[in-house]
Amino acid sequence: MGLKTSEKPLLERLKDSEKDVFMQKAVAKAQDAQWEKREGARDELGNWEQWRELGEQIRQHTIAYLPDYLEQFSDNVAKQGGKVFFAQTAQEAQDYVKRLIIEKQIKKVVKSKSMVTTEVDIDPMLLDLEGVNVMETDLAEFILQMDDWDEPSHIVFPSIHKNREQIRQVFEKKLGYKGDNEPVNLARCAREVMRKFFLEADMGITGCNFAVADSGIINLDTNEGNADLTISVPKTQVVLMGMERIVPTMKEAEVLDNLLARSAVGQTLTTYVTFAGKKAEDESDGPEDFHVVILDNGRSNALGTAFQSVLQCIRCGSCLNVCPVYRHIGGHGYGSIYPGPIGAVLSPVLGGYKQFGELPYASSLCGACTETCPVKIPLHELLIEHRRVMTNELGMQHGFDDFQMKVIGKGTSTPWMFKSAMTFAHAGSAPLSKKKNISVENMYDYGGYIDKGPGMVKGWTDVRDLPRPPKGSENFRSWYKNRQKAGDK
Amino acid sequence: MTELIQNREDFLKNLTEKLGIERQPVESHPFEPMNQLPHETLSGKTQDELLQVAKERVKKIHTNIVETKQADLEGIINELIGKWGNGKVLLPTDNRFKEVGLNQFDANDYANHSVDFDRAFWQKGADYREENIQTASEANVAVAFAEFLLAESGSIVVETHAGQGRSLHFLPTHYISIVPKSKIVPRSTQAADFYHEKRAKGETLGSAIHFISGPSNSGDIEMQLVVGLHGPIEVVYVVVEDL
């Protein structure tokens, strides 16, 4: 799957999302529930703005000195006998894990939830290896795996687009589950299946919430306990981390753990906040063989540019949870494993404008994302910046849109053309306009509404009616001129 | 895969070029926090007040706090284990059991104290890996000491050592944490500070430190909370007043 989750163009994906009524309801329900929990948790903490500033400061500091902290971290992992592999690309990261599995003759791999492992396509690689079995152990990802590796649709709640009955059917078909669709019973079934696999696993693959530079350990925040089993039972552990997910010491990790839990799920802390590395000599469980793969894969494109702040992200998903666009199109609509506002900013940085250039336009620029971000990433400003870069610096063509924009640009900057356009607009729009009653949605009536507009207007009329432009003599400029004349008298 | 660190130089060179900086030792740019909120939050409270905060919090994370005196500790724990149906009880090899008078859980003395359940100890040393994990997976209950109780989040803090592995806290079905009241601190900040300072002093830390807030749970199915997933299904903190 990698970064890109769909080959369909954006508009086609949006049509698919539009049809998926359950998904829309589920996302809306999740957003509303999370709103209450998140804001409640932040209020309870108090001084939220100052906490955000501290979070931002920690992240900015770390990114500004990223090479130094990565050097310190890797030295400290090595001091404990762990291994660190710096991967420039997803392919390098994947190849490293593959070599390791073949070399160590690994048979059973347990994974705990990690966006980066999806980004580098670890699962298809594992599935292709003969004699290797893999199990996703986060409940949501286990459900997706059982449903023939359906793709995740949310950073924090990957299976948000499935209901309990769909899950029951999947469990019945794949696991021989005979029970009802109560979440607790489905979860107990999953526990049993996964527990057995855990005890036989010889490799664990985890992500990384934060790597702690001064101690060479990994900080993981989870609720289910699967990550803790993944770092306890198998003899070999592989950590896949985005290169920016690092902090100077445990003290800064602790601040971010607090911001993350409150922002992601409205908890004070996640049930398990774990700091761990390679097992010590005299300890009996934990990884004897400990590997950290540090991934760039396009992240460094952001360094030294206006997009540097996107690397501050701590993957809490709260920008998804407040986004009106995400609410309507869901995670799959974005076509990237990083959906929502953060995905619309990050995906073009990682995968380029050719693949993800449409995403910065999948936004109403309402700014709710920027306001909720616990580390103060100016998300909506970065969306505008992407648009600016694409149009001004790269001169990217957008077919008919560009043509229309050029006509509009020419028209509005040439007085006689502008005036004749204003006169023409009313008459010219007559064939498109229908007579309709005035409502809250359509307050201005100049002789009907356009509900199926052409070209760029279609984007508007697909979701609401456009009032027909007024007659030349009734528009604001004419009206103002006439008022002035009346005043003169 | 013989080298411990691979591809580092080229990787970091790219980053320094993009950032337009030179590499320097981290000591030259220590992080100075702009505010002291982590330390100010819930500061200045007495142990009783912190216990109150913790008691309120644990109601929200499906966990019970039982308060007791040292003299009644054994009875309370045996009662809890009985309520959960006895069976196999996993214990760390930990001198503190003896120190608080729980001789029935002392690895050297337990045989002299009869109880209604089976006791198994986390064996010290790498050779016992499989045996320890197997025992933990069969255990109905684990009993262990908390290093801290974080009042704000209702979390206990545990650190691995030879006699207490990682999976001791995650594989058993039920879990009892013994918390000396003196070890209740305002929040995760104090625990992070403690381990930070311990490391700075050059002391050895366990390879894993866990902050655990009640039983495992998940909201992955229709966001309906399910308590008990991979980790323990039920958790009780026993706060010992005179410790």
Automatic annotation (TrEMBL), chain A:
<keyword id="KW-0479">Metal-binding</keyword>
<dbReference type="GO" id="GO:0006089">
    <property type="term" value="P:lactate metabolic process"/>
</dbReference>
<dbReference type="GO" id="GO:0046872">
    <property type="term" value="F:metal ion binding"/>
</dbReference>
<dbReference type="GO" id="GO:0051539">
    <property type="term" value="F:4 iron, 4 sulfur cluster binding"/>
</dbReference>
<keyword id="KW-0004">4Fe-4S</keyword>
<feature type="compositionally biased region" description="Basic residues">
    <location>
        <begin position="480"/>
        <end position="489"/>
    </location>
</feature>
<dbReference type="InterPro" id="IPR004452">
    <property type="entry name" value="LutB/LldF"/>
</dbReference>
<dbReference type="InterPro" id="IPR017900">
    <property type="entry name" value="4Fe4S_Fe_S_CS"/>
</dbReference>
<feature type="region of interest" description="Disordered">
    <location>
        <begin position="465"/>
        <end position="489"/>
    </location>
</feature>
<feature type="domain" description="4Fe-4S ferredoxin-type">
    <location>
        <begin position="304"/>
        <end position="334"/>
    </location>
</feature>
<keyword id="KW-0408">Iron</keyword>
<keyword id="KW-0411">Iron-sulfur</keyword>
<dbReference type="Pfam" id="PF13183">
    <property type="entry name" value="Fer4_8"/>
</dbReference>
<dbReference type="InterPro" id="IPR037171">
    <property type="entry name" value="NagB/RpiA_transferase-like"/>
</dbReference>
<dbReference type="InterPro" id="IPR003741">
    <property type="entry name" value="LUD_dom"/>
</dbReference>
<protein>
    <submittedName>
        <fullName>Iron-sulfur cluster-binding protein</fullName>
    </submittedName>
</protein>
<dbReference type="Pfam" id="PF02589">
    <property type="entry name" value="LUD_dom"/>
</dbReference>
<dbReference type="InterPro" id="IPR024185">
    <property type="entry name" value="FTHF_cligase-like_sf"/>
</dbReference>
<dbReference type="InterPro" id="IPR017896">
    <property type="entry name" value="4Fe4S_Fe-S-bd"/>
</dbReference>
UniProtKB/TrEMBL annotation, chain B:
<dbReference type="Pfam" id="PF02589">
    <property type="entry name" value="LUD_dom"/>
</dbReference>
<feature type="domain" description="LUD">
    <location>
        <begin position="52"/>
        <end position="240"/>
    </location>
</feature>
<dbReference type="InterPro" id="IPR003741">
    <property type="entry name" value="LUD_dom"/>
</dbReference>
<dbReference type="InterPro" id="IPR037171">
    <property type="entry name" value="NagB/RpiA_transferase-like"/>
</dbReference>
<protein>
    <submittedName>
        <fullName>Lactate utilization protein C</fullName>
    </submittedName>
</protein>
<dbReference type="InterPro" id="IPR024185">
    <property type="entry name" value="FTHF_cligase-like_sf"/>
</dbReference>
